[in-house]
């Protein structure tokens, strides 16, 4: 086993580590902080790692991005391509496009870096959305985490901005079409639109200022904002402590979990390489954004399959789904409602609702306490329903945004698809809300049944009097805790409109709104099992449960005997 | 060798040999047949009369006995030229399988001889665009860069940036061009089948057409950077980022978190 020779090296190593730590501590007093960090407790669950995915893909973005900046030239100067790639030989293009082609085909590893960077961007945004969905469905945004929800929301918007500016940098036809659409969207804003567009593009679209400006935003402004907000986001996680799923011994006043060191340092360290590895594999195996096929930007061509990256697709879907007849001309000025509604108002409402959601829900609950134990999604049926409805709405718009691809893939008529989606975008979210709420409440009822009657064992017992019953096994205390310890929120009471002097109360309307909202949330609910109910159920089923207990004892005794008999024979 | 001679032959061996021999002869015969067919480009009177018979048997139901067309069913073929016939029949679009948004390119129904005879017959009705010769469609003689610029301006809005295909209105579609022969690509530009506009020689010169063929041919040498995911752009990329990328990563989080409570 351990031979004596390794012992001195181990101690020498320990001594060296200790001396280094001491050296650092004597100069910075970092020891206490390190100890605090290392002993910080975090609850464990797979879904708590989704935010980590976003963080790690952001690190991959920074690493690969640094390499790309070494070769990318953010300039709209015209050049003729003189490189090796046959289908672009001698073609006139901007320096930005030329340098992208150059780094793809002539810089060793350049194409891999570009593809890793782009795949990492798609994973980054996808991970943020997944993380956000987890936080939403488990109610992790409740007090005291509303600010952190807002910071996370801002990070999500910034990731879209980072993605869009990066996607547009190569100055190819595809991203140029995307920019032209954004330009159109900006111009649809009444009065200010054309001024913002002129200011942004430095004159008429496309101008020559945009690529350098977007480059600065993409590599400096947005990443700096993201980095600093990530720091605040994580600081608040440390400060407010991480939420935990309900379970035995877990309350709003404690954190049950494992220390950061060594458990999470090892897990998180390893997981970084998993995320990096998956992104690197995607970058190595799958082509992404082949700008050499789209060609250098030119305002005239638009090719089939022109779509933005997935996270902007829902806005494209909004534009495609909108009937064009709603453009109105007022006193000689055109009000492009057909662009304004789907591309400005719709995303504004969608994102605004998301940003404000913690407050919207707190109006309904009136709950002022801190909530550190997460909800199981079924125990908040209306919230879960709203979440699924939002996702459904988003997915319908994404499908409409890819309507030409869907039509071509399934050989359908693109016109019929659009008509279908026009109905679905309103009908499906409502349906999804209703179905989800019903499913959640059904699951709650199942939980109730389980608590009151125990697990079905599948064992049918006949009594002496001929009665048959199925034996139910009572739940363990841990299981029962999970199923009964949720917040049972009821609709808020509305105080009377007039006070005792018959004077109309101030803020009555606002209260009435909150009460209506509260009714919407909590009118239909499944109450958790109370101790009295549990006691009654046990009394009622005493015979079954005790009979079961007696039988199972007899059963296991018999089995033990049989095993004892069998054992010598086996030997 | 010794081992071979020592082994007893299987009972079925003569039968298998016979089958292989027959298959060999049939294959060889089909090669012998097809080689001179493409060599004789000039249409003889014989071809025209054979073509007229084929036309009467396979096309006349819709296009009329004199190829004059039927109102609301099928267009007149007088003056469409050999190129149109070679494209429509040679890609399996004609004879049309069923009415629908557009003719589907199904299995080709005739051999090249018969197609040539049909083309000769239709070409004899009135002058029209002819089938291009081998040099006119040789991708090696074209300039891919010029072809790409032309493709982007004239073709990509329907066929996609590299000819992967795309949707048109009311269930019609621009097909993928990856498996289309250079001759058929040339002919399609020349005659404008179905929803496609005609790009005549004044519009896109024969040299430009060859350049476009050269560009499309470049796409068949494989995509730089790995699997192209259908080359349909960001929708496919987003789908794979979610399904494959997020799928694997979330799978790992579940695996790492499996020991927790």
- Going by CATH, what is the homologous superfamily of one domain in chain B? Cytochrome c-like domain
End-to-end Cα distance of chain B: 69 Å
User: Which CATH class of one domain in chain B is shown?
Assistant: Mainly Alpha
Order of helices and strands of chain A: HHEHEEHHHHHHEHHHEEHHHHEEHHHH
Question: What would you note in describing this structure?
Answer:
The complex is a heterodimer of chains A (571) and B (261). Chain A has 571 residues and is mainly alpha-helical. Helix content of chain A is 65%, strand content 6%. Chain A has two domains: 42-244 and 256-303 and 314-375, Cytochrome Bc1 Complex, Chain C, CATH 1.20.810; 440-570, no CATH class. Chain A has helices at residues 6-28, 30-39, 50-69, 95-105, 110-138, 146-168, 173-187, 193-201, 210-240, 260-285, 291-294, 313-321, 337-365, 381-401, 403-410, 414-453, 477-484, 508-522, 531-540, 542-570, and strands at residues 41-42, 78-80, 92-94, 258-259, 327-330, 333-336, 455-462, 468-473. Chain A has a two-stranded antiparallel sheet with strand order 1-4. In chain A, strands 2-3 form a two-stranded antiparallel ribbon. In chain A, strands 5-6 form a two-stranded antiparallel sheet. The radius of gyration of chain A is 31 Å and the shape is globular. Mean pLDDT of chain A is 90; it is low at 562-571. Chain B has 261 residues and is mostly helical. Among the domains of chain B are: 44-131, Cytochrome c-like domain (Cytochrome Bc1 Complex, Chain D, domain 2), CATH 1.10.760; 133-223, Cytochrome c-like domain (Cytochrome Bc1 Complex, Chain D, domain 2, Orthogonal Bundle), CATH 1.10.760. Helix content of chain B is 52%, strand content 2%. Chain B has eleven helices and two strands; from the N terminus they run ααααααααββααα. Chain B has helices at residues 2-6, 13-39, 45-58, 60-63, 81-90, 112-125, 144-154, 156-159, 182-191, 206-218, 234-256, and strands at residues 166-167, 173-174. In chain B, β1 (166-167) and β2 form a beta hairpin. Chains A and B meet through α5, α10, α11, α15 and α16 of A and α7, α8, β1, β2 and α11 of B.
């Amino acid at each position: 086993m351990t031979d004596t020779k390794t012992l001195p090296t181990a101690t020498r190593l320990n001594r060296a580590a200790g001396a280094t730590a001491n050296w650092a501590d004597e100069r910075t007093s970092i020891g206490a902080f390190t100890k605090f960090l290392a002993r910080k407790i975090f609850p464990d669950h797979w879904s708590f790692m989704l935010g980590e995915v976003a963080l790690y893909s952001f690190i991959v973005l920074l690493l690969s991005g640094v390499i790309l900046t070494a070769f990318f030239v953010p300039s709209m100067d015209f050049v003729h391509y003189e490189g090796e790639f046959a289908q672009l030989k001698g073609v006139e293009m901007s320096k930005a496009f030329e340098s992208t082609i150059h780094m793809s085909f002539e810089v060793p590893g350049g194409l891999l870096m570009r593809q890793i960077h782009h795949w990492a961007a798609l994973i980054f945004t996808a991970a943020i959305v997944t993380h956000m969905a987890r936080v939403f469905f488990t109610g992790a945004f409740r007090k005291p985490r509303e600010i952190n929800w807002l910071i996370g929301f801002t990070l999500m918007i910034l990731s879209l901005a980072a993605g869009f500016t990066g996607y547009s940098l190569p100055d190819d036809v595809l991203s140029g079409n995307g920019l032209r659409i954004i330009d159109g969207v900006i111009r649809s804003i009444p009065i200010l639109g054309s001024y913002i567009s002129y200011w942004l593009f430095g004159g008429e679209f496309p101008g020559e200022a945009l690529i350098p400006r977007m480059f600065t935003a993409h590599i400096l402004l947005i990443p700096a904002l993201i980095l600093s907000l990530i720091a605040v986001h994580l600081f608040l996680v440390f400060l407010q402590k991480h939420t935990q799923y309900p379970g035995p011994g877990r309350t709003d006043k404690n954190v049950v979990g494992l220390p950061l060191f060594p458990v999470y340092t090892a897990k998180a360290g390893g997981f970084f390489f998993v995320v990096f590895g998956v992104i690197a594999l995607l970058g190595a195996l799958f082509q992404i954004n082949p700008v050499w096929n789209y060609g250098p930007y030119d305002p005239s061509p638009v090719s089939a399959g022109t779509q933005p990256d997935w996270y902007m697709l829902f806005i494209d879907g909004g534009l495609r789904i909108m009937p064009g007849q709603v453009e109105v001309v007022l006193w000689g000025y055109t009000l492009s409602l057909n662009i304004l509604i789907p591309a400005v108002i719709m995303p504004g409402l969608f994102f605004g609702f998301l940003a404000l959601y913690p407050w919207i829900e707190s109006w309904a609950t009136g709950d002022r306490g801190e909530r550190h134990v997460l909800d199981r999604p079924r125990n908040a049926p209306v919230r879960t329903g709203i979440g699924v409805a939002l996702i459904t709405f988003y997915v319908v718009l994404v499908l409409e945004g890819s309507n030409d691809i869907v039509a071509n893939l399934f050989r359908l008529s693109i016109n019929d698809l659009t008509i279908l989606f026009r109905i679905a975008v309103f009908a499906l979210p409502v349906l999804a809300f209703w179905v989800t709420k019903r499913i959640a409440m059904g699951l709650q009822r199942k939980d109730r049944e389980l608590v009151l009657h125990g697990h079905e064992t599948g064992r049918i017992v006949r009594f002496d009097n001929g009665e048959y019953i199925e034996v139910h096994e009572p739940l363990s205390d841990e299981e029962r805790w999970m199923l009964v310890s949720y917040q049972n929120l009821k609709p808020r009471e509305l105080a009377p409109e007039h006070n005792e002097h018959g004077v109309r109360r101030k803020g009555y309307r606002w209260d009435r709104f909150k009460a209506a909202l509260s009714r919407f949330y909590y009118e239909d609910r499944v109450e958790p099992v109370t101790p009295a109910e549990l006691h009654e159920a046990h009394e009622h089923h005493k015979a079954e449960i005790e009979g079961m207990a007696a039988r199972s004892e007899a059963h296991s005794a018999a089995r033990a005997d049989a095993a004892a008999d069998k054992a010598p024979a086996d030997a | 060798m010794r081992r071979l001679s020592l082994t007893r032959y299987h009972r079925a061996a003569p039968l298998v040999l016979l089958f292989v021999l027959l298959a060999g002869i049939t294959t060889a015969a089909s090669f012998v047949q097809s080689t001179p067919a493409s060599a004789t480009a000039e249409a003889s009177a014989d071809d025209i009369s054979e073509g007229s018979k084929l036309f009467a048997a396979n096309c006349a139901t819709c296009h009329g006995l004199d190829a004059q067309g039927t109102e609301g069913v099928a267009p007149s073929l007088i003056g469409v030229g050999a190129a149109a016939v070679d494209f429509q029949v040679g890609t399996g679009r004609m004879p049309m399988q069923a009415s629908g948004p557009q003719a589907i390119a199904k299995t080709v129904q005739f051999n090249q001889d018969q197609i040539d005879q049909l083309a000769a017959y239709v070409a004899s009705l009135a002058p029209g665009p002819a089938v291009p010769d081998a040099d006119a469609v040789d991708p090696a003689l074209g300039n891919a860069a010029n072809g790409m610029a032309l493709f982007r301006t004239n073709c990509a809005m329907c066929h996609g940036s590299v000819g992967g295909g795309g949707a048109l209105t009311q269930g019609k579609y621009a097909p993928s061009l990856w498996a289309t022969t250079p001759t058929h690509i040339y002919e399609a530009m020349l005659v404008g089948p179905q929803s496609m506009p005609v790009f005549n020689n004044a519009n896109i010169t024969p040299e430009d057409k060859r350049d476009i063929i050269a560009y499309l041919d470049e796409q068949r040498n494989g995509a730089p950077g790995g699997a192209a995911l259908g080359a349909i752009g960001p929708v496919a990329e987003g789908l794979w980022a979610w399904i494959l990328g997020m799928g694997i990563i979330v799978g790992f989080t579940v695996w790492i978190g499996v020991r927790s409570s």
